[in-house]
Amino acid sequence: MEYFPAPLEKLVEQFARLPGIGSKSAQRLAFHVLGLPETEAQEFADAILDAKRSVTCCPVCQNFTAGGLCPICSSPKRDGATICVVADPRDVVAVERSREYNGHYHVLHGVISPMNHVGPDDLSIKSLVERVAKGGVAEVIMATNPDTEGEATAMYIARLLRPFDVRITRLAYGIPVGGHLEFADDATLMRALEGRRDIL
Prior knowledge:
The chain is an alpha/beta fold.
């Protein structure tokens, strides 16, 4: 039985298709949109369509851009000898927030996941290998998530890049800042011990 008019039901269904949005959240969002003045609702719809039409992938790093090279690839202040490989454009934002990294990126747009029918050919791995093969790259930092798919993807790419004269590193991981040892799982503690370093 439908509780809402068909157009509202359709709007709720569309919001419910978004990741992390359940049926109740979808209803709240749909009601919010219905409560907007028509000009604001039109701006919202236009913003979605405009982003869909104008946002493309950078031809070098595959990060999102509004056409041409992304701001990071086009910046002369960035270190082109280092490439940080991430799974998703959101990961670029996360690394940039640290303000510690000044190199370039390469966005894979996913990770190898046989369970989800995602193989190496579905990701932008080939263009990464081509970038490294051209030369001028001294280090490739594998910054995929420390889960099964992220590890498998990092190992696969590392094998492909091994023939080139390039240093391949993996992000360190272990106990989070502000965390407590008693709450850390065995795998996290093992990684923290493996990645320990001297106190300067």
